[in-house]
Every structure is written in C-alpha cells, then in structure tokens.
Amino acid sequence: METIEITAVVGACAPERRAFAQRRATQIGAPLLTAARLSASADPALEAVTVAPWFGSSGAVVIELPADVRATDVMRAFSEDSERIRLTHLICVVDAAHLLTDVMRDDYLPQRGDALFVARAELLITQMEHASQIVLVNWESQATAQLAALMALVHHLAPRARLRLQQDGSDPIAPPTALSRSQDRAGWIAVLNDELDPYMTDARVTAFRYTHERPLHAGRLQALLDHRIEPGEFGFVVRSAGFCRLASRPRTIASWDHVGRVISFEPIGAGGISPAAELLAIGQDLAFIGLDLDIAGITAALDAVALTDVEFSAGPEAWLRLPDPFPEWATAEESPG
Hints:
By secondary structure, this protein is an alpha/beta fold. It folds into 2 domains: 4-186, 3-Layer(aba) Sandwich (Rossmann fold); 204-319, Hypothetical Protein Yjia, Chain: A,domain 2. The protein is built from 12 helices and 13 strands. The strands form 3 sheets. A 6-stranded parallel β-sheet has the order 2-3-1-4-7-8, sandwiched between helices. Strands 9-13-10-11-12 form a 5-stranded antiparallel β-sheet. A hairpin with a 2-residue loop joins strand 11 (252-259) and strand 12. Helix 9 packs antiparallel against helix 10.
C-alpha cells in the first residue's frame, strides 16, 4: 500500500489558517480535511489519522487542525500509524500583526476529553516550536524594524523551523521532513544545550541560560513573576522554560513552562535530598527568550529568589515550612505535616 504524505496545518487564527490550508491543498492537488470537519471529535488529531487514508487517493492529504490541538498530540497520533500515513510537514500559520498580542493572552481553553485547561498562548508557542515550517501572514503592515524583530524572535523560538513570509501566488514547498513525536526543535531546548544558533538575529531579541545551585523560595518567586517579570520591568519575556526545584517541595524536580503572562510548574521526577547530595543536582536550569531583555536584571532578581545562606543551611525539613502560594501537584506533596 502506498504511504500517504500528510501536511498538517496549525495556528491560532482560524481564517488565516483555513485560507493557507486551502491554498496548499490546491497547489499540490490534494484533498483538504478541514478543522470544521474535525472539531466535533473528542480527539481531532486521532480523528484525522483515522479519516485521512479515505481522502488520500492522490497520495497526499492536507489537514487543517483546530486551534486547541497540541502539536505534540498531532505528532503522537501520526506516529502510531506510520505504515499507512506519514507526517511530512507541520506548518504553523502565524499572524504577524497579532503575534505579540496573542502571546500575552491569559485565557485558557478546555482540553478535550478531560477537565484540564491549557493556555491559548502556550498552544500557539508550542505549535511554533514543533513546526517544520512557520508562515507569517499579514506582515505587510509591519514597519521594517518591527518585522525584522518578529522574524528574529520566531527564529529564536523555533530555530529548526523554516520561516517564510506569505507572498501572493504560489507558495514554495519545503522538502519533506522526518517528523516524530520526540521532536526537539524548541529554541529553549537549544539554549539549555548551549546550541542555539538562529538563522536571523536582531538587537532587540535575546536568549540566555540561567542556572543556580540552590532551590527557589516559592513566595518570592511568585512576587517576582507577578509584580516584576509580567509587567515588563526586565523587557518582554516571551518564553522561558526549563527545570527547577521549589524549596518547599524539595524532593521533586519540576518543569518550568512559561509563555507571556502564564506559567506552570509540573512535577517530572523525584530525587530525595541527602546531606551528601550535590548542590548542582537540586538547582535551576532555565532558558529565557524575549524582546529588549535586561539579562543582568533578570539574573539578579532570580538570584534573590533562591534560598539565602541562612535559609539554605536550615535544611530541607525547614524548607517545607516556607510560604508556597502555587497550586498543589497531583503527586505526593511535600508540605508541613
């Protein structure tokens, strides 16, 4: 049986996403499976995998996915049926005129099939980070300097994605890309690996790595995020991500996942603290990407959030009693009593 090549199109702005998907389907002579057709499903990505073979008599299908579908779910779904269908392009359509506004949205969308919610801004950024190609639309109204900064920002967020401006006429088609559920395209991962080498740079766009050997004081961290970083005291932090440890939850390593005005900490592993533990094993490793960033200011502010000499010397049992305003995790939690 011939393997059907799939072009998946994602993006936050439905009209622009739909128009691009229609153009691409016409250009390559492939049928289009629309987001409207998939939206009624509890799992649109899995529904696309099920339906696509029936559309693929030409050997290719273009699939437009709803805005609330995670890029990782798309890759997971298509990787499970790789014999019949192959995901060769994951294209994220981004509205240049609204990108920074969309990043600063703090509303949440319900996730299909469960009671959880996901930030709309996080969906957009992670779609960009996992994309094989990013297409900027509505870029003509942007001043040259602003457009240059936006393009450099996209290259920092997704350094391995092909970036282009949508033009009138035929859209150039990138060569097929091997896409898998274990994508590591995100710029923040490259920052943590000291490998970030974006194709385009701009004086306003910065990416840097922050490390610290001591756990963070959760109360001071919340104050820093809410009253200094979010209001823009240190510039516009578009994306920060990595790994951290809150002092009041010392036995669990957490993921730090931040976009614009939303941040989440999720447990990803446990590691008991013993007197012989290496300090570097219990600290922070974070990547920051943004516009007009004050690197020295962010670094000093984060240093002040880490435990002081007195707090650190008191030991993990004392850390459990420190203020912790963040939501509890679903796993076993360290707390007084």
